Backbone:
């Protein structure tokens, strides 16, 4: 809750920065997010120790983990002052995810055994969620890119007065994060086949959650191919990145609430 | 022993007068030594730039400090300027003036930074020749400190107020770095040359020049360390170009959307910055609708420069507050020194 409050304050401060045309230094926002991540990390570590395993076992924990990935990745990238404004754009995403995660239905009373068992299960979940975190930050960079391109195209003074980084750098950051996220997602999905083999004796299952995960994998593969193979970067890539993450955000909950392999 | 300033600048005298008193570095030292030997000054620094000639001096107690005006007068063998063209300032105005000059507040281009380097050079010259003492040393060191403070605490030096510098800033908002960027200059006019030089000063390495007069293109390319191409051939180079500065005297568009669209495909959608400083315009405005193309004309660039100038002007009062506070502090510390003498807070006596 404390972390969500910090993210909310950061979102409010974003409005101030936006009104100032992003001409003010973003150190206050960085500080707010750093403050939030302290409480965020404490909550996750406390929960993990109390249940004696990595806290990635239900929708609530997954949401918390993904948003933690986004904010810690940003804090690392934001050490470089030219990229610090990424945090300003990430704040509303973090705040929204935090508020959503606090819905009681996402964290039902815990039964005897959690949904994931053993280290491989935790690793699988962690990799997938880290991937989604990277996709989230990538879409934030893409949003910044589109904002800058829009301002430059329309000759707005904000394009040149603001402290936002150059669009080439934003495109590279978005692409890099997307590539990193894809790699993590691939690793997480490969481990899932090992887990299936261990549990059911089959490498594959037509479970809706697995099918959804592979659909997302193909979506991001398509984006990467679009960028690097067909040289379709720029606005198309940025919109594709944002749309893909919005799709993930909107469908993730629904898919994991279905009776599926993670509930067995 | 007050610190005084005597001089003329772009505010008070036209260039035809200023140029008569412009003093080279080689001539400055003998001149100041002569002044010192005459007993008119105990310490002196001479600042001579294209926009001002000033002497910062400490005059001995009992000497009429207004006599320094003679430096600009017939006593120096030069046709004296009009009385209104020379100013003579005493503390605290002299100290405030020194700080303003160091901060670029008195410059032709508000907030420019070149003057600080020139002031430092002038001071170091006098320092090494033993022409400064405790008072001027303290005053100049304080001036450099104030300039640094004003630069870090205000926006007086922020942004670019020339068309060329604005173009560079735009390029830096698009590209990570200018170092690997290829620049093309179409039409070798004065403004496009200045813009190209501004890009070079920020690291752009490769310049291609194209002009109707190939000889002019070759000459400019040689100056800029680039290469020239014939005017009919510039379009062939486009695939590799990142920044274009166009300033031809063509009455029609030299670059339009149908011509640029296929080139953008072959460039694999890499960003392209087009700076069109020609009147009438060289580049069809429609090209700005192409993806990854950013077109700015002379009005757009001037508009940005004017916005920056407004920003700087808004900072002047803040800078002046800092300057007045620091000048007061310096004056107190100078007067607290033994044998400091000094005036009694008389207001500046400007040339009347």
Residues:
């Amino acid at each position: 809750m404390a972390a969500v409050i910090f993210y909310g304050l950061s979102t409010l401060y974003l409005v101030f920065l936006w009104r100032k045309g992003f001409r003010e230094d973003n150190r206050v926002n960085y500080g707010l997010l750093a403050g939030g991540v302290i409480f965020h990390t404490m909550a996750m570590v406390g929960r993990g120790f109390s249940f004696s395993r990595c806290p990635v076992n239900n929708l609530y924990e997954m949401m918390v983990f993904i948003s933690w990935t986004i904010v810690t990745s940003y804090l690392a990238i934001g050490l470089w002052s030219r990229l610090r404004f990424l945090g300003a754009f990430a704040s509303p995403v973090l705040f929204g995810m935090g508020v959503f995660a606090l819905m009681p239905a996402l964290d039902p009373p815990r039964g005897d055994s959690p949904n994931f068992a053993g280290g491989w299960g935790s690793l699988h979940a962690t990799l997938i969620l880290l991937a989604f975190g990277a996709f989230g930050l990538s879409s934030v960079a893409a949003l910044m890119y589109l904002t800058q391109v829009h301002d430059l195209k329309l000759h707005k003074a904000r394009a040149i007065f603001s402290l936002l980084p150059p669009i080439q750098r934003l495109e590279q950051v978005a692409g890099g994060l997307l590539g990193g996220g894809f790699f993590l997602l691939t690793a997480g999905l490969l481990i899932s086949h090992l887990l299936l083999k261990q549990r059911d004796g089959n490498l594959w299952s037509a479970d809706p959650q697995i099918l959804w995960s592979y659909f997302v994998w193909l979506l991001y593969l398509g984006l990467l191919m679009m960028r690097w193979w067909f040289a379709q970067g720029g606005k198309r890539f940025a919109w594709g990145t944002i749309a893909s993450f919005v799709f993930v955000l909107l469908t993730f909950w629904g898919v994991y609430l279905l009776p599926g392999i993670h509930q067995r | 022993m007050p610190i005084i300033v005597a001089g003329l600048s772009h505010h008070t005298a036209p260039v035809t007068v200023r140029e008569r008193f412009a003093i080279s570095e080689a001539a400055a030292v003998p001149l100041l030594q002569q002044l010192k030997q005459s007993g008119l000054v105990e310490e002196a620094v001479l600042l001579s730039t294209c926009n001002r000639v000033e002497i910062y001096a400490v005059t001995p107690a009992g000497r009429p400090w207004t006599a320094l005006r003679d430096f600009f007068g017939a006593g120096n063998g030069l046709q004296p300027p009009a009385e209104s063209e020379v100013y003579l300032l005493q503390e605290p105005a002299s100290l405030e003036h020194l700080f303003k000059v160091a901060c670029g507040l008195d410059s032709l281009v508000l907030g420019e930074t070149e003057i600080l380097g020139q002031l430092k050079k002038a001071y170091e010259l006098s320092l090494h020749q033993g022409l400064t003492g405790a008072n001027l040393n303290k005053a100049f060191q304080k001036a450099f400190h104030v300039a640094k403070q004003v630069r870090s605490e205000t926006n007086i030096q922020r942004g670019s107020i020339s068309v060329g510098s604005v173009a560079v800033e735009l390029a830096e908002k698009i590209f990570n770095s200018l170092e690997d960027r290829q620049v093309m200059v179409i039409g070798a006019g004065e403004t496009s040359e200045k813009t190209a030089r501004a890009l070079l000063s920020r690291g752009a390495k490769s310049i291609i020049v194209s002009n109707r007069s190939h000889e002019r293109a070759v000459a400019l390319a040689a100056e800029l360390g680039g290469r020239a191409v014939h005017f009919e051939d510039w379009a062939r180079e486009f695939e590799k170009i990142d920044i274009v500065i166009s300033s031809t005297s063509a009455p029609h568009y030299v670059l339009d959307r149908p011509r640029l669209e296929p080139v953008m495909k072959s460039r694999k959608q890499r960003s392209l910055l087009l700076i069109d400083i020609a009147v009438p315009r060289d580049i069809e405005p429609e090209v700005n609708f192409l993806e990854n193309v950013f077109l700015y004309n002379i009005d757009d660039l001037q508009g940005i420069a004017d916005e920056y100038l407004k920003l700087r002007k808004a900072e002047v009062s803040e800078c002046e507050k800092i300057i007045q506070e620091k000048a007061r502090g310096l004056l107190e510390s100078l007067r607290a020194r033994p044998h400091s003498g000094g005036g009694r807070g008389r207001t500046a006596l400007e040339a009347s």
Q: What stands out?
A: The first strand of chain B starts at residue 3 and ends at 9. Chain B touches chain A at residues 159, 166, 169-170, 172-176, 268-269, 271, 288, 291-292, 294, 296, 300, 303-304, 307, 311 (CB under 8 Å). Residues 340-352 of chain B have pLDDT under 50 and may be disordered.
